Amino acid sequence: MTTTLHTPLARYAARLHAGAGDRHHVASPLGAWLLLALAAPAATGADRDELEDVLGVSAPAAAELAGALVDRPHPLVPSATAVWQQAGHDTARLAEWRATLPRTTATGPLPDQPGLDAWAREHTLGLIDRFPLTRSPDVLLALASALATRISWADPFDLAPAGQLGRASAWAGRLDRVLRTPARGHRAWIAATGPAGDVAVHAAPAVERDGAGLLVVSVAADPSTPAADVLAAAYEVAATAVDEAAPAGRRSLFALPLGDGPAWTVREKRVHTRAPDGREERHTAVLPCWSARDEHDLTAPALGFPAVVRTLGGLLGEPAPRLEARQAAMARYGRYGFEAAAVTAAFALASLAPEGVARTAELRFGHPYAVVAVATDRDGGPWHGVPVFSAWVAEPEEPAATDLADPPEEF
User: Fold this and answer.
1) Which of 106, 128, 256, 393 has its CB surrounded by the most CB atoms within 10 Å?
2) Does residue 97 sit within a domain?
3) Residues 143 and 13 in one domain
């Protein structure tokens, strides 16, 4: 599963991160990819071709991959998906597609905004407080995914002076303390990659649960390397980092020059070692704590959601639905653990009414007029429609002082 999904997900990640460029940010390409994969089987013609290009696999394969992830959630990565429709907008074609969704995907009437916010909190361990989109009467259909994790490192970091980041690091002068790999448990190496050349790699494992774990891989390249290339290299390295065997591209320290490199310093000294050839390799790493909170607009055609909303509009009988798509994401990396969450959401909204002419009347009650107060009862009781008070207004007054003050608490 990991090998099958990794390549298409890396391609999609490049598209998503491109929108943020080199600014500090966090995202979940998987969270967005899952929604595209769930919708793809309903697409036909050009929209299906477009979605399959974005997904990197065929629509049936994408749906199968997404279904396996959603229906068998990882013990350390709670996940959820949902498809909701506005009351009165269910159709036979929509129901047919909905029947193909993973069994754990929530379906039903579109919740109100507090309900959407509560769903986001519930499925992100409380890390994301609000749904990334705002509900309106125009929303016909909503898709959502949520991913979250909160783990402890199997072996916590040690602390070190920030100066250990190196003289070339601007962060060394801004920070007091940074993280340093413990004596055991973490892995670090230098890897050769296609996108970014040689990079420094650090991998911190989480405490496992039911035999499942999480490995957080950090990758640093030459500072002049574009962010997109370093992110691509990180996905490349992560593809094999989960294996205990030597990861692909690992460089021998004896093949590198002594001294400072783009993100490391190689030193040599005489030691007692039991290495077969008498040449032992050791790696340590220092890196800062960090956190990020971000939102990403997902409406660019390259991200696939315009094709999804056109597809869903066809299921709804809506010829030209409008799109809102957004992801809220956060992450925090510290001495003792890591936590992250993302909620991805897409709305298919009713198309705009045809262009015409509008007239607006500003009504002016500037001469005597009548007033009638009528009771209402939503259950149709005997008071419904009964005029209770009536008046003829012929002597207007200035607003009272109480009308000019802030409203009483009961209002």
Assistant:
1) 128
2) yes
3) yes
8 A C-beta contact, residue 54 and residue 302: yes
Residues 6+ apart with CB under 8 A from 209: 75, 76
Tokens of 109: 């009437």
Could you tell me if 35 and 100 lie in one domain? yes
With a cut of 60, say whether residue 310 has pLDDT above it: yes
pTM: 0.86
pLDDT category at 336 given cuts 50, 70, 90 is very high
| Beta-carbon contacts of residue 61 (< 8 Å; ≥ 6 apart) | none
Q: Cα dist. 322→201, 308, 392 in Å?
A: 43, 11, 47
**Alpha carbon distance 288, 180 (integer Å):** 9
Domain residues for 395? 369-404
Q: Is residue 122 part of a domain?
A: yes
Instruction: Assess whether 318 and 336 both reside in one domain.
Output: yes
Q: Give the alpha-carbon dihedral of 101, 104, 109, 115, to 10 degrees.
A: -140
- The H or E element spanning position 311 is helix 305-316
